[in-house]
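REVIEWER CHECKLIST
Item 1: Sequence provided? yes
Item 2: Single chain? yes
Item 3: Sequence as submitted:
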Amino acid sequence: MQTTTSRIATVDDIEAIVMLVNSAYRGDTGRVGWTTEADLVDGVRLDPSLLREDIMRERSLVLLVEQDGRLQACTHVADDHGAGYLGMFAVDPSLQGSGLGTTLLAEAERIAHSKWLLPVMRMLVIDVRDELIAFYERRGYRRTGIIKPFPYGDKRFGIPLRQDLRFEMLEKPLSGPTP
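Item 4: Structure as written out by the authors:
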């Protein structure tokens, strides 16, 4: 019988997280799932030094889902000036569409709301990723119209294959019982 568990990442998990995130978003392995950015951005999706900072920062954590010790999904959750921030959301491409991502997203929202008492969750999504934005909209997120520039020239975020990339902020009110 397989056992699925969730836990908070440590710096010892950096290599496995980088491999998972890069496989979910970039290159041919990402094309197995539906979240690929391979036609938009090449190179790495996640820089190990930035990941280390996220793991070590206060009111910031990387949530992992494992099955029998194998990393299946992860996401970064943080307090960003009084609002929850969700990033680095990745599910093993062979498991996308199984409901694992929806479960992980709900847990990240629960942590932001119940642990840090944050009223909303926000994220940045490349605005031409219509299918991904629709996924989040079905889970209660809305487009805010707030646009942020893509970090062209910073290889820590990949090598853009198009010149029209930018981020749009999505937002969802968090509610429910708090401690």
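Item 5: Key structural point noted by reviewer: The longest helix spans residues 100-115.
Item 6: Recommendation: ____
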